[in-house]
Amino acid sequence: MSLLIIGCGDTGRRVARLAQAAGQRCVGVVRTTESARRLAAEGVEARQLDLDDAVSALPVADRVLVTAPPPRQGTQDTRIRRVLAALQPPPQRLVYISTSGVYGDHGGAWVDETAELRPTTPRALRRADAEQQLQVWSEQTGVSVCRLRVPGIYGPGRLPVQRLQRGLPVIRPAEAPWSNRIHVEDLARVCWLALTAEQIEPVYNVSDGQPSTMTEYFLTCARLLNLPEPPQIPLAQAEQSLGAQAASFVRESRRLRTQRLREGLGFEPIYPDLVGGVTASLGDESG
After folding, report:
1. Measuring CA to CA, which residue among 153, 6, 1 is closest to residue 82?
2. Suppose 215 and one of 52, 93, 99, 170 were both cysteines; which one would form an S-S bond, judging by CB atoms 3.0 to 4.6 Å apart?
3. How many Cα atoms are found within 13 Å in the side-chain-facing hemisphere of 53?
4. pLDDT digits (tens, 9 = 90+) for 87-117
5. Whole-angstrom distance between the N-terminal and C-terminal Cα of the chain?
6. Rounded to whole angstroms, how far apart are CA atoms 265 and 280?
7. Distance CA 168, CA 153 (A)
8. Please, are residues 132 and 188 in contact by the beta-carbon 8 Å criterion?
9. What are phi and psi of 2, to 5 degrees?
10. Alpha carbon of 215 to those of 66, 136, 166, 196, 280: distances in Å?
11. So what's the pLDDT on residue 287?
């Protein structure tokens, strides 16, 4: 098997290590010279491309993982459109990292992969557009496409250290909306399972299976980092102090069901809870 990782950053490099350990050839597409050098230092073949420019062709591979985000503006993902057009010949399988934000607000209810999509933020709208493009492309080409709906990612170098040091407030626990998380190493393992499993579903919710709130996350990080506990404020006050996009994000509340991921792909997280995951992330900034 050969693997092409488009947008080979932190998560992509971790997947590349799994591919290397399995003896598979891996190519990573990155935007900057620094990222290309980092990949090369890890023994990964690097191709430097800017997905905001015309992409004539991409390296040929059996499997493709797309971790590159959409552009920062608009409601459409023009980058994935260029990627799909440049995958000639098409691969056997493509795995795309989307966001659980495509579900929008479900009032704290549990949502599985059949739940209605209610994207409201520009970022979620771009991801929903990418998912739609991938579905159409899969139908046209016959390529097996898997969309991973991923929530907040944490891990080494991804903890809210600066936010806690600045003493920024959090929503008081009684009003804090439900949220979901996944450790970056567990996310890499999910990607590898989706790339290599014999049978896959078109969509998987990805999380550690233990929903909490952002407030609990910040309080846990503060305690384990030995930093002062952030002040707590009412939800209404938080919404007033945020911009429109950030305010819409904190109003979203949902809990992800992960039965399909666990039963279908046999995934069990290494870090199933915040304390274990955050503790394992301390003092390791290598990524």
Report:
1. 6
2. 170
3. 6
4. 999 999 999 999 999 999 999 999 999 999 9
5. 25
6. 24
7. 20
8. no
9. -115, 145
10. 31, 39, 16, 36, 20
11. 40
